[in-house]
C-alpha cells in the first residue's frame, strides 16, 4: 500500500467515528465528512482491533451478524488499515515518556493510535478529543472532531 502524499491532508479515524456510520440515527456532520473525505481516510490497526474485539464479545444473533458484515464489507473494504510500524513505535515511546515527564501520563491505546497518525502524517479524527490533549502537548498531533466540524486542533502552548 502506498503512503499518502504528505502535502495532502489525510485522516485516521478513531473507532467512535467509524462506528457512527451504523447507528440508527448517525451524526449528520460525521457522515458528511466521511463522504467528502472517504478516499483520504484510514483506520489504525488498534481501531480495527477494538471493533473486532467488540464483535467477538457479542452473543450470537442478528446484531452480531450485521456488525460482522459491516466490519468486513464496509470498514475493511472502504478504509486502508494503517499498521503499528517501527516508526510508530519510536514515536509512541517518545510520546509516552514525554507525557510522563510533564506529569500527564497517557493511556497506551490512545498514544498508540496517535503514534500511527503521526507516523503517517495524518490528522486523527475522534469524538474524544480530550483523550489526546496531553499527547498534543508533547507532539505535533492534529486532532479533529467531526461531530463538531472543527478544523485541526493543536494544543495551545
Question: Any overview of this molecule?
Answer:
Helix content is 49%, strand content 10%. Strand 4 (123-125), helix 7 (133-137) and strand 5 form a beta-alpha-beta unit. It starts with 10 loop residues before the first strand and ends in a 13-residue tail after the last strand. The protein is an alpha/beta fold. Strands 3-2-1-4-5 form a five-stranded parallel sheet.
What's this model, at a glance?
By secondary structure, the protein is α/β, with parallel strands linked by helices. 49% of the residues lie in helices and 10% in strands.
- What's the Cα radius of gyration? 16 Å
Could you tell me the number of beta strands?
Answer: 5
Query: What count of helical segments does DSSP give?
Result: 7
Low-pLDDT stretches are 1-5
SSE pattern: EHHEHHEHHEHE
* Main β-sheet description: 5 strands, parallel
Judged by helices, strands and strand pairing, the structural class is alpha/beta
How do the strands of the widest beta sheet line up side by side? 3-2-1-4-5
* Structural shape: globular
Overall mean pLDDT = 90
Helical fraction equals 40-55%
Strand content: 5-15%
Roughly how many Å apart are the termini? 36 Å
